[in-house]
């Protein structure tokens, strides 16, 4: 790697920040008090975006609009086929603006542009999948209750849903929630992260163009305490769909409990990849590097704990280190970049603090470990730590940076103990040619997803979510729309009722 990094300034730097207004009841509006939030590109250092900054008044207006749209508007009442048509139109419009959206996400989050394009393409696919599910949503009927009875179980949209999203996959994560809530017939208030809101406002524009009725989707930029918190506690909100840290997830659940709202939680992870000696070690080494450093490790699914069999540790880690040296770190807008900028200087300091603490605890830096000097922005060298043990904070806590912690094992029982020795349970990976080994790990690891001889693939068809403190509920998959519904049981009685109570 050539140090320091020289970062070229893109055209956006001289054009000045793009401005975005809140979407409330079908109109783009400024905040009532005129406040704005700015976002600097973490990879380049210039101001990319300026958003109107919502507060309590805007939350009230957005929830009221969503509630009105739910109570009296056409969206929950129209045919699923009509809702699906609008979702499909939205998917087409997202696809048409893919480059614009990907560039905004890359500029605001620091992620590589090639990766951002992949994410937006993936989001298009999810919107189409949700449209298909809208038309297959159905309840149940029971004709087995005796000749006089018919039981019907309806699936009805749950109501107003607050959707709160993090910064690491700005457009993709909103797309793992919103189209399913819409497919069910819900109305929504959406809060993207205050650091990466631009692409969600483009989505708002697209949805209005696609023909979504006013008030069905409202979008607010703002801080968690000012906007996220009242979106959770508001009495007219029936469900909260939250993706973010376990810390804020717990606060959100506690607040939602006041009005007994339904919550769906996609939270942090500390995922292990277990490598056995009989694996395809070349493929496993490449996947280990991908899992550790993809999205600069700012990924709930990051395979941040590499759990390697003692017998192969030296050779395998040698291969991992050699591959790591070839990972291009640099300008998020450069097509060849694999690892872009860190989201903020505060977050970079937190990650380097974890590395320093791990060294203090007795592990050693095997590769990287240093901030990369750059002409703009903040970058961290992909880092590998050896000699990590289960008791260290680096082995148990979510670091959320390009830091791979290596632990070793001697037996499958030991590997499983290490993999499960964390409060999280989002995902895990196992590498072995033996079906017995793979099945033993897959069955005994406590996580919502297990990848066998692959890592971090995702499909709209497959449910995603966490065990333990990684979350509550599942997103995606064929039941994703059902999650945004209530069940209503209707019992029909035919003829005169028998078995009177008083007589
Ligand atoms: P965060 O918890 O700090 O913020 C997430 C969202 O919550 C933001 O929009 C924020 O403004 C909002 N928020 C903050 N305080 C709030 C409050 N008091 N009430 C309501 N909302 C509030 O998380 P982050 O730093 O943006 O994202 C990184 C975290 O997200 C990591 O822990 C990562 O593992 C997790 N994540 C999980 C998944 C998953 O699918 N499991 C996916 C992506 C990210």
TrEMBL record:
Keywords: Oxidation, Oxidoreductase, Potassium. GO terms for molecular function: oxidoreductase activity, acting on the aldehyde or oxo group of donors, NAD or NADP as acceptor. Gene3D superfamilies: Aldehyde Dehydrogenase, Chain A, domain 1, Aldehyde Dehydrogenase, Chain A, domain 2. It comes from Mesorhizobium wenxiniae. The keyword Electron transport does not apply. It comes from the Bacteria. This is Sorbosone dehydrogenase. Pfam families: Aldedh. Belongs to the aldehyde dehydrogenase family. Residues 29-490 form the Aldehyde dehydrogenase domain. The keyword Oxidoreductase applies. SUPFAM superfamilies: ALDH-like.
């Amino acid at each position: 790697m050539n140090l320091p990094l020289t970062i070229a300034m893109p055209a956006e730097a001289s054009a000045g920040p793009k401005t975005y207004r809140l979407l409330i009841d079908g109109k783009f509006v400024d905040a009532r008090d005129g406040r704005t939030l700015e976002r600097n590109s973490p990879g380049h250092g210039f101001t990319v975006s300026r958003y109107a900054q919502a507060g309590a008044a805007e939350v009230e207006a957005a929830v009221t609009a969503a509630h009105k749209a739910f109570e009296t508007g056409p969206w929950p009442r129209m045919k699923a086929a009509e809702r699906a048509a609008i979702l499909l139109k939205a998917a087409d419009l997202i696809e048409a603006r893919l480059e614009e959206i990907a560039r905004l996400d890359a500029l605001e989050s620091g992620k590589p542009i090639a990766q951002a394009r992949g994410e937006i393409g993936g989001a298009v696919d999810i919107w189409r999948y949700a449209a298909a599910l809208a038309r297959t949503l159905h309840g149940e009927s029971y004709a087995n209750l005796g000749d006089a009875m018919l039981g019907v179980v309806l699936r009805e949209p749950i109501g107003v849903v607050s959707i709160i999203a993090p910064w690491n996959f700005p457009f993709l994560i909103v797309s793992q929630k919103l189209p399913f809530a819409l497919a069910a017939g819900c109305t929504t208030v959406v809060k993207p992260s205050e650091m990466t809101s631009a692409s969600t406002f483009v989505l708002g524009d697209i949805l209005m163009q696609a023909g979504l009725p006013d008030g069905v989707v409202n979008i607010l930029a703002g801080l968690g305490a000012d906007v996220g918190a009242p979106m959770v506690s508001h009495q007219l909100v029936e469900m909260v769909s939250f993706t973010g840290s376990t810390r804020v997830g717990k606060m959100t659940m506690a607040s939602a409990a006041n009005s007994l709202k339904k919550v769906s939680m996609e939270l942090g992870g500390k995922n292990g990849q277990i490598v056995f000696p009989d694996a395809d070690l070349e493929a496993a080494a490449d996947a280990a590097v991908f899992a550790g450093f993809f999205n600069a490790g700012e990924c709930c699914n990051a395979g941040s704990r590499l759990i390697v069999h003692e017998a192969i540790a030296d050779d395998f880690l040698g291969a991992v280190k050699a591959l790591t040296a070839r990972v291009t770190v640099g300008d998020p807008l450069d097509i060849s970049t694999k690892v872009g900028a860190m989201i903020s200087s505060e977050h970079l300091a937190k990650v380097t603090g974890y590395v320093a603490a791990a060294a203090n605890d007795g592990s050693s830096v095997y590769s990287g470990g240093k901030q990369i000097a750059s002409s703009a922005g903040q970058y961290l060298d992909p880092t590998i730590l050896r000699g990590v043990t289960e008791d260290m904070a680096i082995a148990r806590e979510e670091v959320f940076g390009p830091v791979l912690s290596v632990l070793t094992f001697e037996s499958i029982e030991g590997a499983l103990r290490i993999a499960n020795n964390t409060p999280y349970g989002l995902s895990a990976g196992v590498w072995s040619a033996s079906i017995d080994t793979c099945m033993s790990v897959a069955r005994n690891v406590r996580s919502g997803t297990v990848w066998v001889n692959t890592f971090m693939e995702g499909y709209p068809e497959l449910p995603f979510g966490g065990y333990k403190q990684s979350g509550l509920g599942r997103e995606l998959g064929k039941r994703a729309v059902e999650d945004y519904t209530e069940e209503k049981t209707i019992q029909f009685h035919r003829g005169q009722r028998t078995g009177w109570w008083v007589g």
